């Protein structure tokens, strides 16, 4: 049996609910309990580590017996392990649901297997409903599960002709206020922000996420500096709410240590050389390119050597979104060969 129109509508609602949850070590998950007629009986979403999972959150809003014969709509396969909370698969079975519809399989070996568990209990299961939308929502979390390292976003701003600065080295500001505000919102959504020592010494960035009035946003990424040159005693990064971390330049080792520290989303903002190093190493999961309608010319390219020597080696991208921000454009892209599990 394939998903009904009512179940697909419910999954869209579940995805909207999932977006209310925080992005972090746990996935954003939404859930609905609907009747056989498609009426919504309860809604829930995961509010962060240690809180009830989405399915349990939804079930908690029902009285005993209300879920008998109902359908659970979940954006991610119900978990099958006991951590800070019990297995959602067991909770659904105990509640008496007769059908579970979910979007994508859980790739985590520890928590996966919930679909089989409810199926073995006699509950009908349908998977893959709005799977593409769910993968897009959980892109960074899925990257961490699949690759065992943080999800990496590489950002740069450039003129229309691909320059990051004028011949004299000046670069503030290529883009306008709307684009810069968007960058700060994306910084606030990351766990760590990365620059190289070249950018740190040349621009003295604060590496904070700020509102339009200059005040600090609620969430601040950990500042990370790549390179061996010492950070000056009066550097702005030393006034960051979090102590900065510095790595000599081994990207794999840096990402491994950041993952060990609980970092799941890395925002690379540190100059043409650092951006190119992540692209060249195949470590750029997402690219954010802010393009200003200006021509600069000269040799100050926004991206350095990425290892391409002939056109057949060009690093092809899939454009996921194009957004107009004031007079500027934001292009969101990812490697075209990127696999999704």
Structural summary, described in words:
The protein is α/β, with parallel strands linked by helices. It has 10 helices and 13 strands. It has helices at 5-18, 54-59, 88-95, 114-120, 131-137, 139-147, 177-188, 197-203, 251-260, 271-280, and strands spanning 30-34, 40-45, 71-76, 99-104, 124-126, 151-159, 192-196, 222-226, 245-247, 265-268, 286-292, 317-325, 328-335. The strands form 2 sheets. It has an 8-stranded mixed sheet, sandwiched between helices. The protein has a 5-stranded mixed sheet with strand order 2-1-3-4-5, with helices on both faces. α3 runs parallel beside α4. The longest helix is centred in the first third of the chain and has 14 residues, at 5-18. The chain is elongated. The mean pLDDT is 91.
Q: What would you say about this model in short?
A:
The chain is of the alpha/beta class and 341 residues long. It contains ten helices and 13 strands.
Mean of the pLDDT scores? 91
Please state the CA-atom Rg, rounded to the nearest Å.
23 Å
Query: Hey, roughly how much beta strand do the residues contain?
Result: 15-25%
Q: What topology, given as strand order, has the largest sheet?
A: 9-8-7-10-6-11-13-12
Instruction: Return residue spans where pLDDT drops below 50 for at least 5 consecutive residues.
Output: none
> How is the main sheet built?
8 strands, mixed
Output the helix-strand order.
HEEHEHEHEHHEHEHEEHEHEEE
Put simply, the count of helices is 10
Name the shape in a single word.
elongated
- Give the helix proportion (percent range): 25-40%
The N- to C-terminal Cα distance equals 24 Å
């Amino acid at each position: 049996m394939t998903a009904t129109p009512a179940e697909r509508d419910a999954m869209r609602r579940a995805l909207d609910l999932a977006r209310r949850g925080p992005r972090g070590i746990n996935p954003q998950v939404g859930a609905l309990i609907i009747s056989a007629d498609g009426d919504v009986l309860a809604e829930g979403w995961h509010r962060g580590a240690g809180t009830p999972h989405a399915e349990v959150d939804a079930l908690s809003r029902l009285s005993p017996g209300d879920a008998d014969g109902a359908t659970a709509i979940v954006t991610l396969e119900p978990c099958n392990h006991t951590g800070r909370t019990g297995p959602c698969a067991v909770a659904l079975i105990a509640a008496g649901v007769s059908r579970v519809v979910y979007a994508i399989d859980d790739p985590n070996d520890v928590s996966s297997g919930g679909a089989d568990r409810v199926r073995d209990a006699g509950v009908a299961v349908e998977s893959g409903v709005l799977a593409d939308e769910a993968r897009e929502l959980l892109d960074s979390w899925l990257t961490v599960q699949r690759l065992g390292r943080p999800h990496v976003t590489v950002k740069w701003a450039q003129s229309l002709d691909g320059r990051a600065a004028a011949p004299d080295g000046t670069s503030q500001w290529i883009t306008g206020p709307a684009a810069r505000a968007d960058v700060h919102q994306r910084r606030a959504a990351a766990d760590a922000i990365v620059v190289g020592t070249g950018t740190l010494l040349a621009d003295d960035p604060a590496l904070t996420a700020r509102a339009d009035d200059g005040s600090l946003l609620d969430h601040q990424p950990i500042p990370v500096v790549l390179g061996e040159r010492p950070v000056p005693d009066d550097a702005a990064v030393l006034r960051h709410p979090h102590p900065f971390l510095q790595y000599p330049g081994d990207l794999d080792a840096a990402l491994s240590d950041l993952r060990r520290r609980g970092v799941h989303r890395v925002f690379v903002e540190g100059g043409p050389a650092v951006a190119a190093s992540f692209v060249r190493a195949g470590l750029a999961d997402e690219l954010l390119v802010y393009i200003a309608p200006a021509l600069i010319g000269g040799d100050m390219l926004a991206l350095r050597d990425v290892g391409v020597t002939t056109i057949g080696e060009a690093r092809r991208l899939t454009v996921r979104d194009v957004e107009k921000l004031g007079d500027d454009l934001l292009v969101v892209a990812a490697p075209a060969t990127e696999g999704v599990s």
